[in-house]
Write a structure and sequence with these properties.
12 helices; mainly alpha
């Protein structure tokens, strides 16, 4: 991003006001994720400057962004799953269980309310999840921890941090990933890949279980024949069929 701005200001330009649409197009990568990232970054800088009338026009306006380069979801080693799932830190084990068994996103986890958890089920806006026994155990332990740590909190959210315990706002995405020690998306993708493999690549099954769109489900079912994933499955296969990280 800094290089893009430097290129614009050094090509006979005396200020950001002099940068034109042609200058922006000249420094943008042709396509893929680098183009998307650079253009979005420039827009985050230049649009506020136009809104504050520091520059007269936004040179990034009406430039086609393109699509990010599609990525292939990757599995997580079983030992790493067991390690995070059996961690002694109660919030970490609870968050990990929701991602590993039910493929919840960090956004879904931060939005959960205590009232969404009842009768062994998790009531999400678009579906109801029957919780696996290991998940129930870890959530019960977390609720005990939560009640002991913040007995008088008015925060309605299930997950509470030291920062949000005195308020009513949800925890941040950063807090969830920091507690887990890895991006939530890695655990979620591993669960979806495992389901795709177990069902022989049935996208309808993934849509029904996890609330994905057909297009999102195809991203996972289309990987089951990838050589790298086949090698991963063989490496983690034991004498009995895989039963999960529990």
């Amino acid at each position: 991003m800094r290089l893009a701005l430097a290129a614009g200001t050094q090509s006979n330009k005396d200020s950001l006001r002099s940068i034109t649409r042609a200058d922006v197009v000249a420094v943008l990568p042709d396509s893929g994720t680098p183009r998307v990232d650079m253009l979005q970054g420039l827009r985050h800088i230049l649009r506020p400057l136009k809104n504050r009338r520091i520059i007269f026009t936004d040179p990034t306006a009406r430039i086609f962004c393109g699509m990010p380069t599609p990525t292939i979801p990757l599995p997580v080693e079983v030992d790493a799953l067991r390690e995070v799932l059996h961690d002694q830190e109660v919030p970490k084990a609870a968050l990990a269980a929701l991602a590993i068994f039910h493929a919840l996103t960090s956004g879904q986890m931060r939005s959960l309310k205590t009232t969404d958890l009842r009768d062994g089920r998790l009531f999400l806006p678009n579906r109801t999840v029957l919780l696996a026994d290991p998940v129930r155990t870890r959530l019960a332990a977390y609720l005990d921890y939560r009640n002991h740590r913040w007995p008088r909190t008015a925060n309605p959210h299930l997950f509470v941090s030291q920062t949000t315990g005195c308020g009513v706002e949800p925890v941040s995405y950063v807090w969830i990933n920091d507690v887990l020690g890895m991006p939530t998306s890695q655990l979620r993708e591993d669960r979806l890949l495992h389901e795709a493999e177990a069902t022989g690549g049935d996208p309808r099954r993934i849509c029904d279980l996890f609330g994905l769109s057909v297009g999102a489900a195809l991203r996972y079912t289309g990987t089951i024949d990838q050589p790298g994933l086949i090698e991963h499955s063989l490496r983690n296969a034991g004498p009995a069929p895989r039963q999960g990280p529990e």
